[in-house]
Amino acid sequence: MDISKVEWHKIILFLSGFWLYDCSQKQQPIHALPSDYTGVAFNNKIDIDSNFSIIDYMYFFNGAGTGLGDFNNDGLEDLFFAGNKVSNTLYQNMGDLRFQNVTEKAGLSSNVWCTGVLVEDFNQDGWLDLYVSVAGEKRSFKRKNLLYINDKDMTFTESATDYGLDFIDYSTHAAVLDYDLDGDLDMYLLNHSNQFKNVNDPIIRKFDGSAVNMDRLLRCDWFDSLDHPIYVDVSKQANITVEGFGLGIGVADFNIDGWPDLYISNDFISNDILYINQGDGTFVNEINRILSHQSFNGMGNDLADFNNDELPDILVVDMLPRTRQSRVMMANNLNTNLQSAAASMGYEPQYPRNTLQLNEGVALGINKFSEIGQYANISSSDWSWAPLFADLNLDGSKDIFVSNGYLKDITNQDFIAYRKNRSTFSSIKKIDSLYLALIQDLDRVNANNLIFWNKNDSTFQESGIKTFVGVSSGATYGDIDLDGDIDLVTNNSNAEASILENSILGNSIGLKLKGSKFNRRGIGSVITAFVNTQVQKFEYYLSRGYMSTVGEVMVIGLGEYEFVDSLRVDWYDGNSSWLYDLKNGNTYNMMHDLSIPRKRFQEEDTFLFVEAQEINLIHEELEYDDFDRYPLLPWKYSNTGPNLTISSEGSKDSILFYLTGSQGFNGIFFDFLGRNEERVTGRAFVEETDAIFFDCDNDGDEDLYILSGGTENIFKKGAYQDELLINNNGTFTISQDRIESTKIPGSKILTIDFDRDGDLDLFRTGQIDLQAYGRPVDSWLYSNEEGSFSSVLGPDFDDLKDLGMVTDAKVVDINNDQWPDIAVVGEWMEVTILFNSLGKGFKKRSLIGSSGNWRSLVTGDFDNDGDLDLVAGNMGLNSGLNASQEFPIRLFGYCPRLDSNCVGIMTTFYPLIDGKYASFPIYSRSTMLRALNNFQTLFPSYQAYAQFTTNDFIRQQGDKILYQNQIQTLNSSYFENQGSGNFTFKPLPKVFQWSSVEALLVSDLNDDGYLDLMAAGNNSGINVTIGNLDASKGILALGTGEGDFKVLPTHLLGDFLSGEVRNIKKVMVGEVPYLSTASNNGNLNFFKINPFFKW
After folding, report:
1. What would the pLDDT profile of 889-943 be if each residue is shown by its tens digit?
2. Are 810 and 857 in contact (CB under 8 A)?
3. If we measure between CA atoms, which residue out of 202, 953, 180, 832 comes closest to residue 524?
4. How far apart are CA 969 and CA 990, in angstroms?
5. Which of 204, 131, 135, 213 is nearest to 170 (CA)?
6. Residue 56 — left, alpha, or beta (φ > 0 → left; ψ -120 to 50 → alpha)?
7. How far is CA 667 from CA 449, 704, 762, 999, in A?
């Protein structure tokens, strides 16, 4: 048997793997091969000197790209590396993962600052060419982009001018696509600028194409006389006119309309761009409508269907460190003031972390995405550059590779502070000299290139594989050794490039496309593979990640299966091809010549809900910055409304609604037809948090109780006084003497006949004590005495004192004793049942281990066993915070002096470098000092604060900690009633965990006899330290009758449950059920179930 050298190499590595695993554990399934074996010694060496440095070019340390391509058509993909201060280098693949440097012979040596690598057959002669982006130098003639046309003998001729591609922008990368579907390949040229000042200042944005840092769309015009195209700049005609600092370019058909769209990830405060192709030669940037937020420092991106739902998703990497110590040391430009200023200038929300935008489909013409990067466990990967989706373990799901590192840690907070102090009153020359000297002494950001395994549940797990620890930038992948798996290559700074061999055993097929005359590689085609019950979808674009081009042969993992049942290619021109029974281990060619016109039959989705009643009412909220006065608050309390309350059901003419008001806007009465609008005047300075219609005086008509809360007017007299409006034949009058004085912000008001005397009493829950944030707040029970209400006091009702920061409550008979109990949830508290002691008091029982940041509560018999269960909405698992009984989030009530107000200091557990966990305050050093300037002595530097643990805080300031609370779970959960007041609980399905669940509704919507759950939420009032919760587009989960739920696809719900929903109600109008949602700073919606919807 003839065994090649590379096979011997694999055998030796495999046999030695047992010893290596037991002893040093160096051998890993994806591992770097030594350069003395591969022959690849390319080193993108970047020295700092005074002739050319970061002073001259701000992206001096950003690295360069790489690309794979079979340049000599021998069936093996060769390697090209772009160099910054060193020459570009081409390595010919000799087989067996060995390469030979052929740069000089190929005519590809360079002496300019090269960045991106695009491999493409520009003249469509069947031989791959190279387009290299150039930046760096201030002298424009040194920035001319390079086009190397293949001479078919492994030599190349530079021809950028002949093709119209000799641009002198600061170019990052380029991608080809057929944007106008005319059959040839156009180009998108991604650019940045060398602007040093104000890169993170929210200045007026330029959308008209007048900015220096503009990208270009280049139309391909083919000339038969030249036998090649000339590219024409059509940027302005196509509306490619938004400025940015482009670092990533991706192409995909996001809305599945057949036209390629574009995603541009931009650095600094400049927002990313999502150009939706209009199908008429133009694009519209729809990112503000499609995405809720973005990455702040957008580096590279990749677009792919990671969850196999046949929709392209978006991954953008940023520079968020994985350890808390590194996060403290890194300059983070985002703060509350900058976020507010940016919003006022029209910038979309963004956060300094990786973002994973899950495509939820198109509903009513709007493409919906949910950002779930924190839920997916990929939001922090250090200083990252190239994200790549690839099925590295061949299980049929796309994993993630991320390249990492930076040559000098220029974001070090202590370095920035020291440089600022030293630079005061110095000349520019001295400042530059000092900067260079300080830069030389800075540490590298050495980071491991990371691999995240796809767990097939919308989450990923960091593999622990160490591929290379150092500084990597551009990265590519492909089956370089033709063994059926995906290998990786990275372009490293000040280190040899990495050739990462994949030795994971698995089943796969290879696929290569053979396109038509002007698109020989089939760029833009869509491949769908059917493997047993799994459907894998790929869009065939090769410019991916960061400055790089991936391999041409597509590797499709089969998991445990031995063949692909069928495979369809939807070509760029509307034709389709099919292959069947594709066997593991083979590579297949798909020929456009054998394709046939595609049948474009697609059944239109029928949406579940249709608008039922147009009522033009909008809840409005004046902007109020809770964090200006209370910088350590984790979230706002000024945006908790609105609530919609409904009078008794009946005909459209008899039903009355009340929408609670907010500071600056009075609450409003209206009927079902939107008539009889009447505002409750004199309460515009009050945040109304709840309201309820009930017959307080037993006169046959319904009165209205309005609850006051919020944070805006804590020092204003009467700000928290509730109101009782008495109904006199349809006229509501404020009663002056029927209720007691209320001085504490309230959150919920319930009616309950707790003593079963035939009239309705009131239960008022406390919201917050801003003088001591986190300290449990009292709730109150008011007894109805002939229409007047007074507090019920006594030792049997003491469990209502210090009940907690209640957010929701429901009256329910938990133990089936015919006496109404109360279920309560809230912030920093356990789910609690107040058991009614035969009308003579209440006894509290909390569910152990359930302490959470609960937002909403409903009850129902979800398992059909005759008792009532609970469902509680929580903050969710997409905030970057994690909580468990072992590692809780804690809140310490810190009181500097006994006679002063207290602040709540929130702490959580972070991973350490050694894999262990330790608890730290969640806030930045500047935020902590802003709230508590006396802490300056505790951590005089950022380095000191980076090491300042919760235990240090307790040890040094323990005598001033007067109370503590904790959160043990952030899961929205189902609580099953086991009888005798006992419950077991489990998380709701994953979509419930993607955002805060602020509103819930229980109803059997599909009439199958089982209770269903409708949920909505989101919250834009979260401290910027954590970031807004905005991933929910609404949820409908159908009950099974066994305490489980099946979630409907989000896009079928339309747009009725999007936004910051605070309230979902169902109202019966005769025999017809109507649904409503009320949103903070949003529309009031009324809708009903579409009778034609197919359940």
Report:
1. 999 999 998 777 899 999 999 998 888 899 999 999 999 999 998 899 999 999 9
2. yes
3. 180
4. 14
5. 135
6. alpha
7. 55, 12, 21, 20
